[in-house]
Amino acid sequence: MIKALRGTKDILPGESDLWQFIESTGRDIFNIYGYNEIRTPIIEEASLFIRGIGDLTDIVQKEMYVFSDRGNRRVALRPEATASIVRAYIENSMSQSGGAAKLFYTGPMFRSERPQQGRQRQFYQIGVEAIGSDSPFLDAEVIALAVRFLDRLGVKNYHVKLNSLGCQKDKMAAIAKHKENFKPHFEKLCDTCKARFDKNVLRIFDCKGDTCRVIAENVKVEAALCNDCESHFKKVKQCLDELGVKYTVDHKIVRGLDYYTKTVFEITQDDLGAKDAICAGGRYNNLVKELGGKDTPATGFAFGVERLALALKAVSCQHSAVSPKVFVAVAGEGLYPEAFKLLDSLRGAGIASEMDYDERSLKSQMRKAEKLGAGFVVILGEDEFKKGKAVLKDMSSGDQKEIMLNEIISALHTIKTSQVAEGNLRS
Ligand code: HAM
């Protein structure tokens, strides 16, 4: 039997309802905040991510799916979307006069990591990118948006951790300090981290090896921001305070991708276990230029959808499968073609409807209608049909009445409207 690849998963009906809820809640709130959807290819030139994310990062060194295509081009399955979106922004000249281009996205990403709960090789992200402004208000907007999204979904027990890496100059100064602090532990570092010590010491914080992790957890980390970056960070914090967004400043948030500058943040969630980062993001003021565009500041975030789904299951957020509003039942063998036509006209009128094609007894059809959660059953029986009528049964009250066949659709529409008015629509 052929099975799904390790680290990939089928999202089955039932679970996909929860995913749709996450996506539609995201779309709603992103639109409210002025973000429009962008869809970029999942396959790109590998060099985009090598240059964008950084050649010494775990993602590029160990996790990226890279291969030569039939034309011998080095291509990669995208490990994240930020670099792709910046590529699209430059390629499609999306710069906005007087403000940032505000984009949101959702879709699969690929990283060849060791699979575990909340960590997959094909996983999904939902996120935003705002390209074209260095305003601290935009940092605050993006972080507040991530938090409001969680609140709308009903995710609880999350924590925002905030830091500023500063500008490129500050990052260089911080790297020098980190080197000093890691130096006494150099001999104990793994070979990869020994190489990182010289080339990009920040990446030692991402090492998943036990020894390096303990060293990184205990090493001293100090903030070293220039006046401009310090004042930018202060304003971001003030804005968040004014909005009532809670956070803690954590100087160890350095992020595992090289493109970050200034404000960075992660959101963890208590129910996720070891892989507790549900969202991560921050500023990447040098990336547009690095990828061949004009010098353009930007910021954004991405949530892991699997992790959002896990957090929602922890608060027992259930989203039941869509139920048909109407089930068409047949009491008379010869009426199947008529019932099939009626089903088609109900669906054509936008009424979610089902029937059973296997010519079972009326009793088993009614059982199926109940199982599917249908609000109403239209029963086509020979006697009523001869009079141009059918029986309409309300499944919640059990009431039933004869109704003219050509009045079924308008009757169901009327019921739907009155139920919406009462706020008790079943499906
Ligand atoms: P990231 O921290 O690499 O950042 O990923 C963001 C989120 O994706 C993580 O917090 C986690 O929830 C989820 N995630 C990452 N890897 C996996 C995995 N193997 N399995 C399941 N979920 C995973 C980025 O990707 C940046 N592009 C975020 C960003 C957007 N920064 C600025 N704009």
User: Can you summarize the main beta sheet?
Assistant: 8 strands, mixed
Helical residue percent?
25-40%
- Walk across the major sheet and give the strand order: 1-5-6-11-10-9-7-8
Number of DSSP helical runs: 15
CA gyration radius, whole angstroms: 28 Å
Class of the largest domain in CATH? Alpha Beta
- Label the overall shape: elongated
CATH architecture of the largest domain: 2-Layer Sandwich
Number of domains: 2
Number of strands: 16
The fraction of residues assigned to DSSP E strands is: 15-25%
Which fold name corresponds to the CATH topology of the largest domain? BirA Bifunctional Protein, domain 2
Low-confidence stretches: 423-427
> Going by CATH, what is the homologous superfamily of the largest domain?
Bira Bifunctional Protein, Domain 2
Bound ions, cofactors and other small molecules, one mention each: histidyl-adenosine monophosphate
**Which structural class should the secondary elements be placed in?**
alpha+beta
C-alpha termini separation: 38 Å
Average pLDDT level:
92
